[in-house]
């Protein structure tokens, strides 16, 4: 079965608030993680990635945190905007070069204006 | 830079018919992937190519699905014969190399009646 899962299937936040989307993974050999955003009718869009030699990485309004001890990944979105409304997927692979990304089921983020 | 191109955008067929999807990856990307995304789920890998060779096709239902990437660029995915449970979005993705982030096309939405 899938080794990547999400704690919450849906998340509603007020515009301007910060959002936190969580993801648990079970494969301790995983060493590369990616967050994707998928809007309705579109393919997944890369947001940010992190490798296992890091525990935090920041992008524009987004931060990914990796806790290898508890095998937990989170995506933080600062000052959430209506355009952030989408389904967010975490994905992992073992980074060995020939293993595919495994996706979780996704969390739907709804931004309330 | 052009993204991953896929066609057709939508396809409706009856069960037991055949269907083919086409993908043109980002120029210079050696690795190409086909994913199946059933409504409400995360993408699931069907097949992965490195140039024109297959890296992973362990989850491809080979009795009905086939894929090729003859010249190491464009790829086609075929289903013959289609079943009702094949209704899904078929996503093509590419990456510069193995163990790099994937860039997705918009997908082909297949409905099997």
Give the tags.
heterodimer, A: 113 residues, mainly beta, 6-stranded mixed beta sheet, 11 strands, 0% helix, globular, B: 113 residues, 7-stranded mixed beta sheet, 4-stranded antiparallel beta sheet
Would you kindly provide a brief summary of this structure?
The complex is a heterodimer of chains A (about 110) and B (about 110). Chain A is mainly β.
Structure classification of chain B: mainly beta
Strand content of chain B: over 45%
Global Rg of chain B = 13 Å
Shape of chain B: globular
Elements of chain A, N to C (H/E)? EEEEEEEEEEE
Unreliably modeled segments of chain A: none
Strand content of chain A: over 45%
**Through-space gap between termini of chain A:** 38 Å
Derived structural class of chain A: mainly beta
Give the chain pair forming the largest contact, with residue counts: A-B, 27 and 23 residues
Q: Could you give a short account of the major beta sheet of chain B?
A: 7 strands, mixed
Alpha carbon gyration radius of chain A: 13 Å
Q: What level of helicity do the residues of chain A show?
A: under 10%
Question: Which whole number gives the mean pLDDT of chain A?
Answer: 88
SSE order of chain B, one letter for each helix or strand: EEEEEEEEEEE
Helix segment tally of chain B: 0
Overall pLDDT of chain B, averaged? 94
* Oligomer type: heterodimer
Total number of beta strands of chain A: 11
Q: What's the helical proportion of residues of chain B? A: under 10%
Low-confidence stretches of chain B: none
Protein topology:
The complex is a heterodimer of chains A (113) and B (113).
Chain A: E1 4-6, E2 10-14, E3 19-25, E4 32-38, E5 45-51, E6 56-58, E7 62-67, E8 72-77, E9 86-93, E10 102-103, E11 107-112
Parallel strand pairs in A: 2-11
Antiparallel strand pairs in A: 1-3, 3-8, 4-5, 4-9, 6-7, 7-8, 9-10, 9-11
Chain B: E1 5-7, E2 10-13, E3 19-24, E4 31-37, E5 44-50, E6 53-56, E7 65-68, E8 75-79, E9 88-95, E10 103-104, E11 108-112
Parallel strand pairs in B: 2-11
Antiparallel strand pairs in B: 1-3, 3-8, 4-5, 4-9, 5-6, 7-8, 9-10, 9-11
């Amino acid at each position: 079965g899938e080794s990547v899962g999400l704690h919450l299937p849906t998340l509603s936040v007020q515009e301007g608030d910060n959002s936190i989307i969580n993801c648990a993974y079970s494969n301790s050999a995983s060493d590369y993680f990616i967050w994707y955003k998928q809007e309705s009718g579109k393919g997944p869009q890369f947001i940010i990635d992190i490798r296992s030699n890091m525990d935090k990485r920041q992008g524009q309004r987004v931060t990914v945190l990796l806790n290898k001890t508890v095998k937990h990944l989170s995506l933080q979105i600062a000052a959430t905007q209506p355009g952030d409304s989408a389904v967010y997927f975490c994905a992992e692979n073992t980074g060995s070069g020939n293993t595919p990304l495994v996706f979780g089921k996704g969390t739907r983020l709804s931004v309330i204006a | 830079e052009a993204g991953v191109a896929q066609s057709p955008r939508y396809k409706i067929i009856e069960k037991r018919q055949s269907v083919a999807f086409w993908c043109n990856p980002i120029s210079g990307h050696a690795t190409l992937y086909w994913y199946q995304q059933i409504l409400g789920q995360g993408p699931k890998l069907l097949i992965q190519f490195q140039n024109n060779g297959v890296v992973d096709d362990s989850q491809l239902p080979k009795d009905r699905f086939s894929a090729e990437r003859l010249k190491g660029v464009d790829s086609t995915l075929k289903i013959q014969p289609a079943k009702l449970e094949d209704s899904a979005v078929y996503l093509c993705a590419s990456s510069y190399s193995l163990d790099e982030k994937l860039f997705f096309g918009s997908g082909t939405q297949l409905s099997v009646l």
